[in-house]
User: What shape does this take?
Amino acid sequence: MKEKKISFQAFICISILLIFVIILENISMIFPSLPQIFAPTSPLFTVLKKAAVYSLVAVSMNLLNGFTGLFSLGQAGFMLLGAYTYAILTVPSAMKEQVYYLFGGCAFEFSLLDMFEGIFGSAGFGGAVSMILACLIAIILAGCVAGLFAYFIGIPVLRLKSDYLAIATLGFAEILRAIFQWQKLGKVTNGANMIKGFPTFSSFNITDASGNTVLRLSTFVPFLISALCILIIVLLIHSSYGRAFKAIRDDEVAAEAMGVSLFKHKMLSFVISSFFAGVGGALFAMYVANAQAKAFTSVMTYEILLIVVIGGIGSVSGSVIATFLYVACSEWWLRFLDSEQYVGAIKIPLLRNGFRMVVFSVVIMVIVLFFSQGIMGNREISIGALFKKRTPRAERKQ
Amino acid sequence: MANALRLENVTMQFGGVVSVNNLSLEVPEHQIIALIGPNGAGKTTAFNCITGVYQPTNGMIEFNGKPIVRNHPSGKSAKSYKGENADMYAKDAVLCPTPDQITGLGIARTFQNIRLWKSMTVFENVLIAKHQHADQNVFSATFRGNLSEEERMRNETMDLLVEQGLDAYKDDLAVSLPYGLQRRLEIARALATKPSLLLLDEPAAGMNPQETAELADFVRQIRDKYNLTVFLIEHHMDLVMNISDYIYVIDFGSEIARGIPKDIQNNRKVIDAYLGTVEDEE
Assistant: This one.
């Protein structure tokens, strides 16, 4: 069957990508003489990790903005919920006193990590199992909390259309950020301070008894989780429900007249998108190794919106490609513009702290002006096409 | 003969404008009934009341003998209400289903200005109309637990496209079809929701006489094939007189005449309001 063949090909491609990431990550340990770029501290891995996290959030936003036609700007708010849920659930009890020292300890004594360590033990293999389980469950719960909030927010907000919906969701995200910074809730959210001490991506690196890293998995883990989540979103988009979402995007009135319940499907899309934004938020907390409301500003939403627009509204592969390009540009390739550089004895003019952002803005403006449909428009890179033997168009018609 | 659809005292008022005024009509099963009237007479508004796009200000709509829409003016609209029979339904519960619920009951419609999903292929356009009646939920659909159901939907869609002679275009974008075929696709899409009552909003708009004549046969054909009742709005008098079993004429929202085509053709009021101008043009 055609569908099965394509799924199989997708599975192979994702597996190859993940294996490639593991090799890339560990190659410097096998061949220490490789260039600096393969060292674990190089910007390459920072970019890969961050882009893996952002691509999930971008795809989740695309599901809402590009495939259902709901212009929502609440993504940072749902990420914040996810990040805090993950952080609060996984900080070990032993760390809580230290993290919440300003508020005299945490009101929420429960920790998933402790719970599983109680069952499987905290050392060796048992420790690994308990950490993986704790992280996995915390990430899923992070998504659920974001999804649940989206449901309650959606009841009033999804009656709004286009710009009004955007403003309402943006406002909701800002309110959430303010609430999480509220001192009165300090015993849970640690006020404006950051929560840290929970398992991060580097906790997944496998070490031997003496503490030396044997196998690095800190880039592999975000890739794995993101790839899985994006796969689920792609499956959803290609299902009967995905088609109904697209029908709503193209023509609400016709969709409703053909039996697609507007409220139900909009809500479904909003909740699912927020679920994955919550998962993305948890991953983001793991990436930066702390959870702090200050990080989830509307600027973050705009960043993701920009990625979605650059990638092409209505294209999952476009969003993923755009995320990697965007993050690489902002974190790595344009870094040199920020420091003073000399060619021989001559100082290159203009290069100074902050110049990167000027160039970056110009690049984005050029992209938006000349590729108004984004990199991919609403097309996709199809895995089937990569595997297919190229045949002339005339033959294909028959 | 039982009525598929019955409107009783339906009034639709927008602010101070009464678009549909105290309209009562009956659409018997398995017949083709036409609703005609000059531009702005409130025909499409009446359709929108039936399909749940608007909630009528007053009145009741029955489908297969069961009330599906019912409302009476209350609160602010009670004061500004200009129509009649305001308290006739005051005791009954208000019913205001959404358009998708109405479609679920078995009423499908087409639109005056074609509303196909533009970015989608002909096949997908019809396939989406199958979504509502599919036995699935979002989890089974995402994780492919509904493969047999999906297969069934695709087969039914394909059958429908073959029946409607659209199978050659199944992978083309809906907007790339010629105008007449877009109309036909819209009807095919409506049929995909498995209706027992089909509402056609100006199906012959923009068609040439040849296409119009074909359409008349086509409408009769689908009525017999799918055992439908057809209720249509139309401006082409040839078509209306040719296919209708019974005609209702409205002007300024109110009914001015009703009868079989022959009577309507000779009705003085109708000629004054509507047909007179048409005859002048000819």
The first helix of chain B runs from residue 43 to 50. The domain at 3-106+195-281 of chain B is CATH 3.40.50.300 (Rossmann fold). Chain B has two domains: 3-106+195-281, 116-193. The longest strand of chain B covers residues 3-14.
